[in-house]
User: Which sequence fits this backbone?
């Protein structure tokens, strides 16, 4: 298919070293700003898919596919966004210390977001709204579970 | 190749209607927050590639490819991020009115970012540092040109 590139999914986060992101944005405030941006982009792309399924906005297949691809890509970035030392500015972040105190549990939560996002990207391409709705539900559940455990309540 | 999905490049922005993004984030402040997030993510992924070429951080092929893919995807979002009415909060945005006063020129600038980002993604996959350096220079020039014309000076 012309005009396409292959982007790896699922394994991306596991294969990319965290050191580069940390090297680039060593200032905790910069890392926090960047990770909040990643979640903003995630929210702004996930939200419309959910809204379309709820009928709040018109369903648009191309938008669903594109937005799901963005969410999937953002999910692969999250694992690098909480280096040690980026918990130190509570006024600027809702990240709970459990992220660093329970790194295995947090890694599992991030992996769940990555995996459900891969399923979302695949479902978006299927054009099957039932499959898409299930995938959206799973991504939403992974967001909520991680926020419940690792994010300060609003 | 297992575990991969196809993502369209270059034509994505042209084929996706702007209406969904606008419907989702009709509040100008929300749109501004989202677009600033897109540029944050862009900067944080483009920057390390440039830094690697300058030798400021170690070159890592997987990171270059991943970051370039993120920049390329972000570039496809930009065209939807400046709907009418999102110029009204000068304290929150550096966007100049020329964006809306000269929509054709702005669209050209966005297209230049998209096109140079496609070249960056391709160059990143080539592993050819000369090609990569040329692509980075072109993307950087497209950033600068658009900022010069359409963004308030810092």
Assistant:
């Amino acid at each position: 298919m012309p005009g396409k590139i292959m982007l790896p999914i699922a394994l991306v986060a596991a294969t990319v070293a965290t050191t580069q992101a940390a090297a680039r944005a060593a200032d905790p405030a910069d890392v926090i700003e960047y990770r909040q941006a990643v979640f903003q982009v995630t929210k702004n792309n996930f939200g419309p898919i959910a809204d379309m399924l709820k009928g709040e906005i018109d369903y648009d297949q191309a938008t669903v596919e594109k937005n799901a691809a963005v969410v999937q890509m953002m999910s692969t970035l999250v694992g690098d966004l909480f280096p040690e030392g980026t918990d130190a500015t509570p006024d600027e972040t809702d990240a709970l210390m459990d992220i660093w105190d329970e790194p295995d549990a947090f890694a599992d939560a991030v992996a769940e977001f990555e995996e459900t996002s891969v399923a979302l990207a695949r479902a978006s391409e299927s054009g099957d709204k039932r499959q898409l709705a299930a995938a959206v539900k799973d991504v939403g559940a992974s967001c909520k579970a991680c926020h419940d455990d690792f994010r300060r309540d609003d």
